[in-house]
User: What shape does this take?
Amino acid sequence: MGVQVKGPIASRSTTIRSLRRVIAPKRLCRRMQEEGQPFEPVLLTPLLVIVLVTVVALFTAHPQFYRLLGAAPALAAAMFSVAGTLGIGLLALAAGVSLSAADHDLGRTAGNFTLLAITVITLAAAYASRVRQHREHTFAEVRAVAETVQRVLLRPLPRHLGQVDVEMFYQAAAAQARIGGDFYEAMQTPHGVRLIIGDVRGKGLPAVEASSMLSAFRVHVHGAPDLPSLAGQLETGMNHHCEEVPDDDALERFVTVVLVEIPDGEPIARLLNCGHPAPLLLHGSEVREVEPSAPSPPINMAALLGDHYQVDTIPFTTGDRLLLYTDGVSETRDGSGTFYPLTHRVRRWASAAPRELLDHLHQGLLAYAAGTRDDDLAALVAHRVEPAGTVTYGWLADPQIDQRPPLGG
Assistant: This one.
């Protein structure tokens, strides 16, 4: 003859069995798969709240703990769809009804008020979930547009341009941003490989000014006979942009750039620095800053400072690398406010390949920075390599003639 258990213990056992049927992680995973959502452990948080509150309410002397079940649908609103939030709310309500019955509180004013509160919280959470989903959808559309614009403006650079290999990295200051005020470009022209890296300064929309600069560079880079002419075209383009987009702060907006020309067949590089941080020249294990011999005005400042553009010519032979960067790199600070020791750090990686050098630099900046960055990061390496088709035999490198000694000679 079996023993029948009656009273509060039997009620609580019945409650536990009923909750097992409605609170099941497998069912929750299956429901999320039907909704097309990837399952992550954090999504179990609302479910764990229901389980924890239920266990505490069943096995303590304070059964009123079940009134905290309303926290579950409130949490679900931050991570579930409307249907998922309503499902969590129904689970919480089912647990509340079972616990209220076990506590003989069902039908009383306090119990009814608790169940009503869970219902109201669930409906409010469902509405909040709908608002969140709408905002996420809008943000996804805006982000998709930004990514498309980035592919047009800050398109990936070609890895090989004649006798120059190019590597770069870019990271906007805002975590979710795709485009900031830093910009870059590298193109093969009749004058050799020409590169630009720049930074929009002052008030306004930096991405708009950056797009204006890139458009002007791409239009005039092939036809400009020299770098001063190209800088003048950029100045004109920026002036026209400020006239078309009038603003009281237009005169406070300017752009710092470095223009580089690496001619084919000549072991040199020409640089025109318009108020930008000095590039670093890596020659073997030697690293030095390439400071301009005379200042050139930033773009949109020629009317104030004059349009005298100074071009510096430096040796740039096979194996040499030129590191161009924006001030987000050189002005990164640590917790004490000390600037990132760029030249010193780059010397450590002087023998590294360009891609590896930039990876070291990027990781070093992220580790060095204190707090939230307020500036973009952009860096570009131009590496001079042997011309295509050159055959090297230790003592000889002639792209036209193969002068190897005959076999057995």
